[in-house]
């Protein structure tokens, strides 16, 4: 089904330019963005499209997180420690749990769902030292439709 969303819209007009449409339209066909522009123009071109009026909300381009760690989802906002004690108390145990591939798959699914809920559509993420956990993260990313660059974390100092 073709769907037209109406909202205040910010879109990428090129690699170094954004375009604002105070009364914008975003046309979605087959789950993909087909057109962006002034609402009235898109409505005239696609009169049979379903309509969802989201005003006064904004539609923004997807956000990119260029540095994140999948196993650290459960430690978000854990504070009050220097780096090494924080790693030892929260992060190393969280990463060790990723030896269980089923746990890793559940956490990766939750991680990507959370990222998408924040408007993040692309991530560059660290996994753990467990190859199967990283494979599970790639599978979870593909299933939920997020773009992901995922690397296996490698450490040779101050780690378990």
Overview of the structural elements:
With 160 residues, this protein is an alpha/beta fold. It has four helices and seven strands. A four-stranded mixed β-sheet has the order 3-2-1-4. A three-stranded parallel β-sheet has the order 5-6-7, covered by helices on one side. α3 packs parallel to α4. The protein is elongated and about 60 Å long. The model has no long low-confidence stretch (mean pLDDT 93).
Features:
four-stranded mixed sheet; 160 residues; alpha/beta; 32% helix; 4 helices; three-stranded parallel sheet
Intertermini distance: 52 Å
Q: Can you summarize the main beta sheet?
A: 4 strands, mixed
Uncertain ranges: none
Helix content: 25-40%
Provide the structure class.
alpha/beta
Strand order of the largest sheet: 3-2-1-4
Task: Give the SSE string.
Answer: EEEHEEHHEHE
On the 0-100 scale, what is the average pLDDT?
Answer: 93
Shape: elongated
Beta-strand percentage range: 35-45%
Number of strands: 7
- Total number of helical segments? 4
Compact overview of the structure:
With 160 residues, the protein is α/β, with parallel strands linked by helices. It contains 4 helices and 7 strands; from the N terminus they run E-E-E-H-E-E-H-H-E-H-E.
